C-alpha cells in the first residue's frame, strides 16, 4: 500500500443565505483562516457570493499571512443566490451560469486552485429532457474545463444525492460523464455524504474511478464532522491510498454554530485515519 500523501482542508462560507449548509466556518475570513491555520489545517475551501466579492476581500493577503493554501472555490452561490444552473431551460440563464462559474475559475486559478461545480449542474424537468440536460452539461464542462486547463488548473465536478439533482448521483455516473468529455481537465469531487446515500460501496466506487478522483468532501453519514456519524472511513481511506490519491480531505460538514468544535473533530478523525 503506498504511503498516504493527503492534505487537510476546511470549508468557509461567506454566503449568509446558505445558512444551514454544510460549511464548518462562516464569515470573517481573516479570523477563521487564522483559526484554521492554528488548528493545523493545510488549506481552506471557500464558498463565496461571487468572484468580485472575493477579489475585494484580501484573500491573497490572508493566504500569504497564514501560509494556508486554497484547496478550491465553490460556485454554488450561483444557485443559492441567483437560481442559476448550467441545464436551465432558459438559454440566457445557462449563459449567465457559465459566466458566473467562469469568473470563479479565473480567480481560483490565480491561487492555483480549482473551482467546483456541484449544485450548478442543475436538474432536468419540465420541457428539458435528460439527454438535453446532459448535452448542455457536457458542453459547459468542455468549455469551462478548457478554461481551467488554459490557466494551469483543474475543474472539479461533484455528483450529488438524489434529493439535490437527477443528473449525476453516483461516482460511476460521474466517471462516465468525464470520459465523454473532450477536455481532460475535469476531475470528480467525491462527497462522502452524497456517496453514503447513493453508493453500494463508496470504497469500491473510488477504486473503480481511480485517476478521475480529484477532491474529497470529508464528512460523516449525517453530514456532521468526520467521526460524529456512523461512516466507516477505514475502507474509504484505504481505497484512496490504493488509487494513489494525492488531493485534499476537505471538511464540508454542518457545524451547528460550533465551527471550531467541528474543525477539531475533523482533525482528530484525519489524524487517526490518514
Ligand atoms: Mn460537497
Element layout with pairings:
Blueprint: E1 7-13, E2 25-26, H1 29-39, E3 43-47, H2 51-55, H3 59-66, E4 69-74, H4 77-82, H5 91-110, E5 115-117, H6 130-150, E6 155-157, H7 171-179, E7 186-191, H8 192-198, H9 202-209, E8 213-218, H10 233-242, E9 248-251, H11 259-273
Helix pairs in contact: 1-3, 5-6, 9-10
Bound molecules: manganese (II) ion (MN).
Highlighted features:
alpha/beta, TIM Barrel, 8-stranded parallel beta barrel, 11 helices, binds manganese (II) ion
- Give the CATH superfamily: Divalent-metal-dependent TIM barrel enzymes
Structural class: alpha/beta
- The amount of beta strand, in percent, is 15-25%
Briefly note the CATH topology name.
TIM Barrel
Helix content: 40-55%
Separation of the first and last Cα atoms? 13 Å
* Rg estimate, integer Å: 17 Å
Residue runs with pLDDT of under 50 for 5 or more positions: none
**What is the overall silhouette?**
globular
Provide the spatial order of strands within the biggest beta sheet.
1-3-4-5-6-7-8-9
Overall pLDDT level: 97
Small molecules in complex: manganese (II) ion
The largest sheet is:
8 strands, parallel, barrel
| Total domain count | 1
Listing every helix as H and every strand as E from the N terminus to the C terminus, the arrangement reads EEHEHHEHHEHEHEHHEHEH
The level-1 CATH class: Alpha Beta
Supply the CATH architecture: Alpha-Beta Barrel
